Hints:
Distance between the termini: 11 Å
Organism: Paenibacillus qinlingensis
Keywords: 2Fe-2S, Iron, Iron-sulfur, Metal-binding
Protein name: Nitrite reductase/ring-hydroxylating ferredoxin subunit
Order of helices and strands: EEEEEEEEE
Strand order of the largest sheet: 1-9-8-4-3-2
Number of strands: 9
Shape: globular
Structural class: mainly beta
Strand content: over 45%
Mean pLDDT: 93
Low-confidence stretches: none
Helix content: under 10%
Domain Rieske: 3-94
Amino acid sequence: MNEILIGSKDQFTAIxxxxxxxxxxxxxxxxxxxxxxxxxxxxxxxxxxELESGELECPLHGWTFEVHTGRCHNVPNARxxxxxxxxxxxxxxALMDIS
Length: 99
């Protein structure tokens, strides 16, 4: 696993927040001080999930996702791919393979 810098913790004033890592779009979430990076690709058909009024939603079929875990409200066993995030000296790093 590689540690990929997302940015300074202080720059993320709104959660969830859209971020780019290696040119790909993700959502940074936080619950009880634990940060997670969620994929922006719907697990159903790979369509781009959008952040709409604080909700994560796939406009293709209307699936919605829990903003802290990525769990799908419509199909409970489906979820957005999560990636662990760690904090070091005020900076947030995603733990993921670079490919």
